[in-house]
């Protein structure tokens, strides 16, 4: 339980519900984040008030049903201002479509639905498999590699850059910006990254306005929802959000999965021996190794589980913890590829469910199939210590593997 200054906690918050758990930044979290979040069900109430000097204070839930409700009721929980990144109030932009509530949200989402639909992403499968094998070709004969830099990052990020119409030779620069923005505990570094991204994307948007292509940024620029073009700020906010969202989450997810695969050879073999179960395998691994959180702001007073919350309060769903809810997923920390199918929250939910969910699922499926076909036996390099990034996307900094 936290002992926070009274000024930092609203008067309506019961003292017994105030905790400082070091979520995303504390030493216990960083030592083993998924184990830490799973254990919250044993040590904390379903809804409590989290005091965090870095991420800010908010109500949080660890229950699947509560997160499910929150994500599907924007009339109580708005996404406006959901992202903590600083923006110039005199030249403000919303992260689109994340920070736009219904009904306006739909017009933005519809612009890219054809690209990110199941049918749309399936067109990329051959390209994904070719890319996965090209990457593996570069290191398979060495018998070792850092998974993060050699495969986990370049596979999804290269696919994303190609979709966006951004240059592959700037991949490391883009990733560096994203890491500093999402994981840096230093506001100066995060601010510099933010300004670097803003300046670069403004230039790209100007270029693609003059010389469009058939990729995502040009699609946004040329969109005419309701017969009208998007404003300059709408185009910028849409592009900026996709840029950030596409650079970190899937590669963090792959890192978590491959760490588990490296340490569990019998379960790895189970995947290899049951190729027809690949979709269930992907879904279960996504449940166990979710990497993101979901922030909202209350638009009106509401009571949940006897807890009174007020309009203006911040509210966060700890999605990985919600995917460990024992009331929904018995033996939740056990990876069970025969688990009955239930909605997972790896991609949030409701109208703001991740637009790239189908793309991510296919990337993970292809990565598993191609890697395990060519490198079925591997382990973590002896003596390697797993360290995790602080911040709102959970994954190891590096993953050295040998075979």
UniProtKB/TrEMBL annotation:
Native source species: Sphingobium boeckii
Name of the protein in question: Cytochrome P450
PANTHER family according to UniProt: P450, PUTATIVE (EUROFUNG)-RELATED (PTHR46696)
Pfam entry (one): p450
Annotated family: Belongs to the cytochrome P450 family.
Domain of life: Bacteria
Single Gene Ontology MF annotation: monooxygenase activity
């Amino acid at each position: 339980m936290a002992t926070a200054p009274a000024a930092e906690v609203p008067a309506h918050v019961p003292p017994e519900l105030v905790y400082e758990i070091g979520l995303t930044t504390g030493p216990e979290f960083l030592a083993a984040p998924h184990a830490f979040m799973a254990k919250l069900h044993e040590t904390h109430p379903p809804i409590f008030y989290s005091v965090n000097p870095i991420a800010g204070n908010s109500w949080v839930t660890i229950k699947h049903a509560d997160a499910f409700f929150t994500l599907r009721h924007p009339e109580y929980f708005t996404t406006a201002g959901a992202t903590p990144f600083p923006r110039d109030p005199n030249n403000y932009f919303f992260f689109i479509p994340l920070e736009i509530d219904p009904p306006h949200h739909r017009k933005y989402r519809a612009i890219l639905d054809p690209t990110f639909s199941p049918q749309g992403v399936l067109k990329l499968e051959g390209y994904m498999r070719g890319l996965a094998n090209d990457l593996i070709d570069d290191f398979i004969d060495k018998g070792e590699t850092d998974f993060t830099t050699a495969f986990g990052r370049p596979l999804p990020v290269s696919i994303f850059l190609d979709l966006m119409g951004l240059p592959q030779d700037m991949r490391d620069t883009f990733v560096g910006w994203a890491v500093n923005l999402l994981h840096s505990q230093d506001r100066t570094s995060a601010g510099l990254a933010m300004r670097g991204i803003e300046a670069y994307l403004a230039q790209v948007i100007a270029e693609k306005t003059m010389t469009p292509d058939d990729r995502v940024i040009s699609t946004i620029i040329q969109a005419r929802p309701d017969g009208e073009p998007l404003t300059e700020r709408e185009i910028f906010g849409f592009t900026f959000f996709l840029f950030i969202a596409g650079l970190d989450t899937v590669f963090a997810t792959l890192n978590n999965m491959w760490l588990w695969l490296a340490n569990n050879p019998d379960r790895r073999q189970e995947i290899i021996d049951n190729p027809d179960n690949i979709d269930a395998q992907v879904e279960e691994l996504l449940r166990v190794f979710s990497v993101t959180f979901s922030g909202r702001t209350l638009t009106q007073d509401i009571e949940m589980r006897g807890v009174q919350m007020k309009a203006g309060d911040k509210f966060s769903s700890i999605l990985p913890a919600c995917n460990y809810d024992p009331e929904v997923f018995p033996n939740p920390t056990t990876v069970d590829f025969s688990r009955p199918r239930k909605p997972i929250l790896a991609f949030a939910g409701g109208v703001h469910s991740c637009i790239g969910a189908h793309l991510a699922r296919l990337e993970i499926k292809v990565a598993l199939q191609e890697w395990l076909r060519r490198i079925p036996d591997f382990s973590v390099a002896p003596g390697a210590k797993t360290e995790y990034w602080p911040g709102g996307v959970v994954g190891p900094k590096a993953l050295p593997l040998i075979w």
